[in-house]
Design brief:
The complex is a heterodimer. Chain A is built from 14 helices and 10 strands. In chain A, the strands form 2 sheets. A 5-stranded mixed sheet of chain A has the order 1-5-2-4-3, with helices on both faces. In chain A, strands 6-10-7-9-8 form a 5-stranded mixed sheet, sandwiched between helices. By secondary structure, chain A is α+β, with helices and mostly antiparallel strands. The mean pLDDT of chain A is 95. Chain B contains 15 helices and 11 strands. In chain B, the strands form 2 sheets. Chain B has a 6-stranded mixed sheet, sandwiched between helices. Chain B has a 5-stranded mixed sheet with strand order 7-11-8-10-9, with helices on both faces. Chain B is globular and about 60 Å long. Classes of the chains: A alpha+beta, B alpha+beta. Chains A and B meet through helix 2, strand 3, strand 4, helix 4 and helix 10 of A and helix 2, strand 5, helix 4, helix 12 and helix 13 of B.
C-alpha cells in the first residue's frame, strides 16, 4: 500500500523522504541499488537540483532505498523535477559509478564495525537477502552490473512511500506495494574475520526478532533497556561503565517487512574479546529479570524521545516515514505511548526466551 | 531567529533564542578549553576530563545519563581543538534538568579514583578505535608533521603515553582551572522564553563563584616547511592519499570567509553544525571542483573538510582509490589553483544560502552555532555573518586564498 504523508515543522526547511522499491530484498541484480546511488549523484538532473540549493542523500537498506532531500521552503518547486532526475541517468557514467560504489563497499568491508555486523547477519540468515548488509554487500561484485541492468531497474522504479515535512511537494512516479520475503533459515554459530592493519576488534551478535508487523513495540522496549538507551542501557553499563572494556557497546533493533533483528555490538582489544563476548551474552540473558524501575526508565525514555527526535524536520521525516512505508496506522506513535503506559516487566522479560538463535561475528586484526 | 544575551554577575555569559513552535530545548555549556590549552604530559587531557564529567557529581541524585535518558533526552560531550561543550536536548517541560546538570558539572565533579581509571581505559579504547580507521591514523601522522610545537599537532585525541601516564590530580587541577563561570558560555535554544532562560540561569548559576584561568590564548602558528610527503605501507584494496593543509581559523576573519567560499567551490558543502538527534541530508555535488580528480581517473572518490578552529587548523583532502600518488597530488594542486568561473561561484553562493537555512532549523544545530561563535569570536551569530560575507566574495578572493593555502602541506599515502 503506497501512501503519502505530509507533516508540519516550525522551521523554514522542507524535507522530503522517498522510499523506493530498491532494497536488498527486491533487487533483480545484487548491488544494483548501490551502483544507482552513484549514478544518480553523477546525473545531470540531481546536479541541477543541488545547484538550486537542494541537499540530497541516498541510502540503501534491506527493504527499500531512501532518497532524502532538503530544500529551503520557498524553493520546493524545484522538487517537481525529482522523479525525472531519478529516471533519466547518463549510462556513460556507469563505469565511474561502479568504481565509486566499489570503493565505498570495499571500505565498509575493511571496517571492523560494519564487517562484523554483516558477517553476523550472513551467519544468522544465510539464504536470505536479509542476511546481507547494505553497506558491505558481502559476496557481491559490482563490476558485473551492466547498462541493461540499470535500464531495467529504472523502468521498474516506483515508490513505496512519500513523506513530506514542512511544505507541500508533489512527486511524480508510480506507487508500488512492498513484498517482504521471510527468511527460510535461521542459523546459530560463530565466525572470526581477520582484517589487516587493525588494532581493535568488534564483536557483533545478531538475534532474529519480529518484523514491523509483529510485536514491534515489545521489541522496541526490550532493545531500549538492553542497549538502545545510551549509557544507562545494560550493555553499555556492563561493558563500558562498570568495566571500561570498550568505548562503544550498544544494541539496535531493526524491524523490517519480512523479519526484524537485534544486533549487539562492542569494540575492544584482543585480550578482552572473550570477556566482552561473555558479558554481552550474559547481559542479554539478564533481560529475564526486569524491574518496575527499569520499566519506568524505558517509559520515560521512549515517550520523551518521540518529542526530542522531532526537533528537526529530518527527524520528523525519519520517524514518521515508516507509517506510509509499511502501511501502519496514522496513530502508530500514539499507540506506542499507550503501550508504554501499560508496559509490565514480564512483557520484556519473556522476549528473552524468544532469542533462541544467535550468530556471533568477531572482526579485527 | 532573534538572539538574546545576558551576563551574570559572576561572568557567565548566557546566549539563547526562543523558537515558538519548538517542543524541545537544547542546552549547551561551552568552555573555553580544548587541545589548544594542553601541554606535554597532558595531551588528550581535555577530552579525558570531558569523559570524567559524565561520572560522579556531587549534588546530582542520579547519574547524568539516567537523568537525561530517563526523560528521553539526548546528551553528549564534545572536545575540540579550542572548546569543550556539553549538551542536553530535552523536551521543553524538562529543560530545567539541563540547567541543573550543567551547574553541578561546572563545580562539583568528584574525579573518584576508580572512575578516573575506568574512563582512562575507555579513552584508550577510543584511541584504538581511531587507530582502526586508516584515515584517522593518517590525519594524526600528518598533523604531527604539519606542526612541530603547536598544540593542534596531536589533534584532539592526544598522545597515548600522556593518556596512560596523566594522574587524577593533574586533571582535577586542570578542571578546577578552566571550569568556572567567566570561562564558559551557556546556550539555551528552543521553546523556553528569554525570561524563562534568564530565570533558570540566575537560579542555577547565579550563586557560583568565579575562580580560575581564562582559556583564551593569543592565536599563533609556526612557519611551515613547504610540502612534506610520506608513505605508510598497508594491505588495503583502497589505497588513499591524504593531503593536510592549514586552513584559517575564526581568529582570521578574512581568511576564514575565503575558506568558506573555497569549501563550497571545492566540495560543494560545509555544514556549520551537525544535527544531534537525526542525520541530515548532506549533498556532495559532483559538480564540485574536486570531483574533476575522479572524472580524470586520479581517484575513485574524494572528500574534504575541516573542523571549526580558532587558529590555522587542519584542512584535509582525501583521495581514495589512488593509483599514482605523485600524479594525483600534482593534479590536486592544479585543480585547486584554477580560477573559478562565474558559474562555479554562483553555484557556491546558492549552496551557501541553502546551507544557512539548513544549519539553523533545529535547536541543537542553532545552539552549536551560537556557542562556537560566542567562545571563539565573541559573537553568537559570527558563523551566520561569516557565510553571508563569504557569499559576497569572488573568483579573485578564491585564487588569493588557495595560493596561500597550498604553501604548506603534508601528503600521506596509504597503500
Amino acid at each position: 500500500m503506497a501512501r503519502v504523508l505530509k507533516l508540519t515543522h516550525w522551521s523554514g526547511s522542507t524535507v522530503l523522504d522517498l522510499k523506493l522499491n530498491l532494497g536488498l530484498v527486491n533487487e533483480d541484480v545484487p548491488g544494483i541499488s548501490r551502483v544507482l546511488i552513484s549514478l544518480w549523484k553523477w546525473s545531470r538532473g540531481v546536479m541541477e537540483l543541488e545547484r538550486s540549493g537542494a541537499s540530497i542523500s541516498f541510502s540503501n537498506s534491506w527493504d527499500y532505498l531512501t532518497v532524502s532531500v532538503k530544500v529551503p521552503r520557498e524553493s520546493t518547486n524545484v522538487l517537481r523535477s525529482l522523479w525525472d532526475a531519478l529516471t533519466k541517468v547518463d549510462l556513460s557514467m556507469l563505469g565511474r559509478a561502479i568504481n565509486e560504489a566499489s570503493t565505498q563497499v570495499n571500505l565498509a568491508r575493511e571496517d571492523t564495525r560494519s564487517r562484523s555486523m554483516a558477517e553476523a547477519l550472513r551467519g544468522l540468515m544465510p539464504n536470505s537477502p536479509y542476511g546481507n548488509h547494505p553497506e558491505t554487500l558481502l559476496g557481491v561484485d559490482l563490476s558485473g552490473v551492466k547498462p541493461e541492468d540499470v535500464r531495467k531497474a529504472l523502468d521498474n522504479l516506483a515508490y513505496y512511500s512519500i513523506t513530506v515535512v514542512g511544505g507541500d511537494v508533489e512527486v511524480n512516479g508510480s506507487p508500488a506495494t512492498g513484498k517482504w520475503p521471510r527468511p527460510s533459515t535461521i542459523n546459530s554459530g560463530e565466525v572470526k574475520v581477520s582484517l589487516s592493519g587493525k588494532v581493535q576488534y568488534t564483536v557483533a551478535i545478531a538475534y532474529p526478532a519480529d518484523s514491523i508487523y509483529g510485536k514491534v513495540y515489545d521489541y522496541m522496549a526490550f532493545n531500549t533497556l538492553l542497549g538502545g538507551m545510551g549509557l544507562i542501557s545494560r550493555l553499555y553499563t556492563e561493558v563500558r561503565v562498570k568495566r571500561g572494556l570498550a568505548y562503544y557497546a550498544y544494541s539496535a533493533y531493526i524491524p523490517l517487512g519480512g523479519i526484524g533483528f537485534i544486533v549487539a555490538m562492542a569494540g575492544t582489544r584482543e585480550k578482552y574479546v572473550n570477556q566482552v563476548k561473555e558479558i554481552m551474552m550474559s547481559t542479554v540473558a539478564s533481560m529475564r529479570e526486569v524491574s518496575k524501575s527499569d520499566i519506568e526508565l524505558v517509559r520515560g525514555n521512549q515517550i520523551g524521545r518521540l518529542v526530542v527526535r522531532a526537533e528537526s524536520p529530518e527527524g520528523v521525516a525519519q520517524m514518521y516515514s515508516i507509517i506510509p512505508l509499511y502501511g501502519l496506522p496514522n496513530d502508530y506513535y500514539d499507540r506506542y505511548v499507550k503501550f508504554l503506559g501499560d508496559l509490565r516487566p514480564e512483557t520484556i522479560a519473556k522476549l528473552t526466551d524468544e532469542l533462541r538463535s544467535s550468530f556471533i561475528a568477531v572482526a579485527g586484526p | 531567529m532573534a538572539v538574546f544575551e545576558l551576563r551574570l554577575n559572576n561572568g557567565l555569559r548566557v546566549v539563547g533564542s526562543h523558537i515558538g513552535g519548538s517542543g524541545v530545548e537544547a542546552i549547551y555549556m561551552f568552555y573555553n578549553v580544548g587541545a589548544k590549552n594542553e601541554r606535554d604530559g597532558i595531551y588528550g587531557g581535555s577530552h579525558l576530563v570531558e569523559h570524567i564529567l559524565f561520572r560522579s557529581i556531587k549534588g546530582l541524585e542520579k547519574s547524568i545519563d539516567e537523568i537525561v535518558e530517563g526523560v528521553g533526552g539526548y546528551f553528549n560531550g564534545f572536545t575540540g581543538f579550542d572548546t569543550t561543550a556539553y549538551v542536553e536536548v530535552l523536551p521543553v517541560d524538562k529543560a530545567e534538568l539541563g540547567f541543573m546538570i550543567e551547574a553541578n558539572r561546572m563545580v562539583n565533579a568528584l574525579f573518584l579514583d576508580n572512575e578516573f581509571n575506568l574512563e582512562r581505559s575507555i579513552v584508550l579504547s577510543e584511541f584504538d578505535m581511531n587507530e582502526n580507521d586508516e584515515e584517522a591514523r593518517m590525519s594524526l601522522i600528518a598533523a604531527r608533521k604539519l606542526w612541530d610545537t603547536h598544540p593542534y599537532r596531536h589533534m584532539v585525541i592526544g598522545v597515548r603515553r600522556d593518556l596512560e601516564g596523566v594522574t587524577r590530580d593533574e586533571l582535577y587541577r586542570y578542571y578546577r582551572q578552566y571550569y568556572h563561570p567567566s570561562n564558559a558560555v551557556l546556550v539555551a535554544v528552543g521553546g523556553l522564553s528569554e525570561h524563562e532562560v534568564e530565570k533558570l540561569a540566575k537560579s542555577y548559576f547565579g550563586g557560583l563563584s568565579d575562580e580560575g584561568l581564562s582559556g583564551a590564548i593569543e592565536p599563533w602558528d609556526e612557519e611551515g616547511a613547504g610540502v612534506i610527503r610520506m608513505s605508510i605501507k598497508g594491505s588495503t584494496s583502497v589505497p588513499r592519499l591524504l593531503t593536510m593543509f592549514k586552513a584559517p581559523g575564526l581568529s582570521n576573519g578574512q581568511g576564514f570567509r575565503a575558506q568558506l567560499l573555497t569549501d563550497f567551490i571545492l566540495i560543494g558543502d560545509r555544514p556549520l553544525a551537525y544535527g544531534l538527534t537525526a542525520a541530515e541530508p548532506i549533498s556532495v555535488p559532483r559538480f564540485a571542483r574536486l570531483y574533476r580528480l575522479v572524472e580524470e581517473g586520479y581517484a575513485t572518490s574524494v572528500s574534504a573538510g575541516h573542523d571549526l578552529t580558532l587558529m590555522n587548523g587542519p584542512y584535509e583532502v582525501v583521495l581514495r582509490g589512488v593509483k599514482d600518488p605523485d600524479k594525483a597530488f600534482n593534479r590536486l594542486i592544479e585543480v585547486m589553483l584554477d580560477k573559478p568561473t562565474d558559474d562555479e561561484v554562483e553555484k557556491a553562493r546558492l549552496r551557501m544560502r541553502a546551507r544557512l537555512g539548513s544549519s539553523t532549523d533545529s535547536p541543537s544545530k542553532l545552539g552549536q552555532i551560537y556557542g562556537m561563535g560566542s567562545v571563539l569570536a565573541n559573537d553568537p551569530e559570527y558563523l551566520i555573518h561569516a557565510v553571508e560575507d563569504a557569499i559576497k566574495l569572488g573568483p579573485g578572493d578564491y585564487v588569493r586564498h588557495v595560493e596561500e593555502l597550498i604553501r604548506y602541506a603534508v601528503v600521506v599515502y596509504y597503500g
